[in-house]
Amino acid sequence: MHDKASVLALPLEDTVPPAVLEAVVRAVAVALSPRQLVPAPRGPEDEGGGLPPLLSPQQAAKLIGVSRQTIDRMVADGELPSIVLREGTRQRMVRIPKAFMLQLLNDLNAGVRVSLKDYAARWLAAVPGQSAVAAGDVIPAAEVA
Question: To bridge 79 with a disulfide, which of 54, 74, 92, 138 should be the other Cys (CB 3.0-4.6 Å)?
Fold first, then answer.
């Protein structure tokens, strides 16, 4: 049997073909490199991939790779800024700003760790005209006009 010292002393060129060794080294390098969650937009023409300025919960879910129900929970918990376009007796029509979702993805791809509630609050505070409105607040139509 080999002891540890004799196994480590074996020259790699004699036991492993150079092409295999190179492939293993490349695979380890890729596995150890920081990974992107989703492909980041490359430029202004690629920003949002033709998405509308306000995303439906389905579009937002597809963009970040979660279910629509997860988006609904995140909106209800105040983790995603949202706009209620219509509120009926049985359902609400909610939209999520594309600008928020793209900024969130860019920051996550850059390695930023975020608390979504705090991140959404900071984003809303940075949006002009939103500083007086907290996430989840509803402004009556009379005040908007």
Answer: 74
Cβ contacts of residue 65 below 8 Å, gap of 6+?
37, 38
Residue 56's SS3 state is coil
Decide if 78 contacts 117 (C-beta within 8 A): yes
User: Can you give the residue ranges of every domain in the chain?
Assistant: 15-129
Contacts of 77 (CB under 8 A, 6+ apart): 117
> What confidence tens digit (pLDDT) does each residue in 7-57 have?
555 555 567 677 777 777 777 777 676 655 555 555 444 455 688 899 999
52 token code pair = 């509308």
